Amino acid sequence: MTPASVVIVGAGAGGAQAAASLRQGGFEGSISLVHGEPGLPYQRPPLSKAYLLGRLEARKLLLRQEHWYAKQRVDLVLDRAVAIDRAGHQVHLAGGSSLSYDHLILATGSRNRELPVPGAHLDGVIGMRTRADADELAGRIREGVEVVVAGAGFIGLEFAAVAAAHGAAVHVLELADRPMARAVSEPTAQFIRRAHEEWGVRFDFGQALTAIDGEGRVTGVETGDGRRLPADLVVYGIGVVPDTVLAEEAGLAIENGIRVDDRLLTSDPDISAIGDAASFPSAHTGGRVRLESVQNAVDQARHVAARLMGASIGYDALPWFWSDQGDLKIQIAGLAEVTDSAVEVAVPEPRATCVLRYRGDRLVAVETVNRPGDHVLARRILAGTGGPSPEEASAPSFDLTRWHEAYGLAPTG
Amino acid sequence: MNVTFTLQDQTSRTVEAEPGWKLMEVAVDNAIPGIDGDCGGEAACATCHVYVAPEWRDATGERTDLEQAMLASTFGVRENSRLSCQIETSEELDGLSVEVVGS
């Protein structure tokens, strides 16, 4: 039965999309969207890209313009949710008031894993997460500034590219043996590393940041092998932790995030969870996963909205990811694990690459740099049935578009 | 200025747009179904695909290189296909008419 009132906690990409999709689907009940940060809800991906480069004005960072909320009858609640009363179907807010719900959507997202080292509290040590973080960083990146980046994941590398473009001296410390080790294969990682090195970024792999020095403000960092690097600014992106506090205190099942079933319902049938905070059974890996991406947040939001309006299918959207670093547009379709093999496809352009990931003989993901056409095609192939075999992909003349024209099944829809 | 979106059910919606915004942003802010703009307007996702009405094709300009590459592999692409995140609205586009393709 369609609920009469929906409360959404968390106004990131997922939360806002849930409200939008409910209205687009014809939902006539009340929608409250709880936003715990100052100002209107905004997009996070540009924070470490166009926004930080100064190429995106503040109002274009907003997920929706102000008039949207009134027009769509979405009650934007600028407060923080502090507790869920499941028996009473209420969400309590920090300001003292409460919201009643028939259905609750938890889109609480994630927060940065903090640097577990001495000196992490010093001025000039910043984790990129919020608009406030980006605004603070933008004011500090200048030519000649010494920047140490802890963590060579998406956020760390996007920031490194921007800082290098501003003429900062950038030094990246990473525990793994290559950049983006969790997200992409060895060949793609090395392609990205080379590009950063061309921009003047220095890397230290297999290297921990063990301490941050300074009095009041940061002056340097210490590395696992005993060196001291000068630093005016330390930016860290060493992963995130799902924001599960509300769910946990309300007694919902937790398993590397808020545990949901294939319909994205928590252990309470009146509460759904979506986005960074939710761990769900993946139709693509067969295992339980928790993904940190806009695609995952908004597709899950659409799914929950459709379900509340009466649809009854399981969630099976194909995951995809993107990152902009300098002139590299990095796109990943599908979900690979570290153990999956990689087949590098020869491409004619020097600043491009295409890597197919296989689990056994099954194509599970496609990583591309500056090959947007391959990416779109890969999403279609991975969402359908069957892709090129590893043998086909290994042929010197292999091209995804030609393969698809010759063998790809006609898409439906 | 005004923009008219023809939806997948063939109904039309005309909305007001402030010049300087991307067509995708105008659509999202007016809750036009079928235009999602998941990537925030970076031509990275192809979730804002539209067909531009023939009389508006010249005024809306050429596809960008990136857009061209994305569209080349997108399902349902036609000669007048554009990613609406790559069209910036302006007074010259007052009355623009596009059809939402959906993804």
Automatic annotation (TrEMBL), chain A:
<dbReference type="InterPro" id="IPR023753">
    <property type="entry name" value="FAD/NAD-binding_dom"/>
</dbReference>
<dbReference type="GO" id="GO:0016651">
    <property type="term" value="F:oxidoreductase activity, acting on NAD(P)H"/>
</dbReference>
<dbReference type="InterPro" id="IPR050446">
    <property type="entry name" value="FAD-oxidoreductase/Apoptosis"/>
</dbReference>
<dbReference type="InterPro" id="IPR036188">
    <property type="entry name" value="FAD/NAD-bd_sf"/>
</dbReference>
<protein>
    <submittedName>
        <fullName>Reductase C-terminal</fullName>
    </submittedName>
</protein>
<feature type="domain" description="Reductase C-terminal">
    <location>
        <begin position="320"/>
        <end position="401"/>
    </location>
</feature>
<dbReference type="Pfam" id="PF07992">
    <property type="entry name" value="Pyr_redox_2"/>
</dbReference>
<dbReference type="InterPro" id="IPR016156">
    <property type="entry name" value="FAD/NAD-linked_Rdtase_dimer_sf"/>
</dbReference>
<keyword id="KW-0274">FAD</keyword>
<keyword id="KW-0285">Flavoprotein</keyword>
<dbReference type="GO" id="GO:0005737">
    <property type="term" value="C:cytoplasm"/>
</dbReference>
<feature type="domain" description="FAD/NAD(P)-binding">
    <location>
        <begin position="5"/>
        <end position="301"/>
    </location>
</feature>
<dbReference type="InterPro" id="IPR028202">
    <property type="entry name" value="Reductase_C"/>
</dbReference>
<dbReference type="Pfam" id="PF14759">
    <property type="entry name" value="Reductase_C"/>
</dbReference>
<keyword id="KW-0560">Oxidoreductase</keyword>
TrEMBL record, chain B:
<dbReference type="GO" id="GO:0140647">
    <property type="term" value="P:P450-containing electron transport chain"/>
</dbReference>
<dbReference type="GO" id="GO:0009055">
    <property type="term" value="F:electron transfer activity"/>
</dbReference>
<keyword id="KW-0479">Metal-binding</keyword>
<dbReference type="InterPro" id="IPR036010">
    <property type="entry name" value="2Fe-2S_ferredoxin-like_sf"/>
</dbReference>
<protein>
    <submittedName>
        <fullName>Ferredoxin, 2Fe-2S</fullName>
    </submittedName>
</protein>
<dbReference type="Pfam" id="PF00111">
    <property type="entry name" value="Fer2"/>
</dbReference>
<keyword id="KW-0408">Iron</keyword>
<dbReference type="InterPro" id="IPR001041">
    <property type="entry name" value="2Fe-2S_ferredoxin-type"/>
</dbReference>
<keyword id="KW-0411">Iron-sulfur</keyword>
<dbReference type="InterPro" id="IPR012675">
    <property type="entry name" value="Beta-grasp_dom_sf"/>
</dbReference>
<dbReference type="InterPro" id="IPR001055">
    <property type="entry name" value="Adrenodoxin-like"/>
</dbReference>
<comment type="similarity">
    <text>Belongs to the adrenodoxin/putidaredoxin family.</text>
</comment>
<dbReference type="GO" id="GO:0046872">
    <property type="term" value="F:metal ion binding"/>
</dbReference>
<feature type="domain" description="2Fe-2S ferredoxin-type">
    <location>
        <begin position="1"/>
        <end position="103"/>
    </location>
</feature>
<dbReference type="GO" id="GO:0051537">
    <property type="term" value="F:2 iron, 2 sulfur cluster binding"/>
</dbReference>
<keyword id="KW-0001">2Fe-2S</keyword>
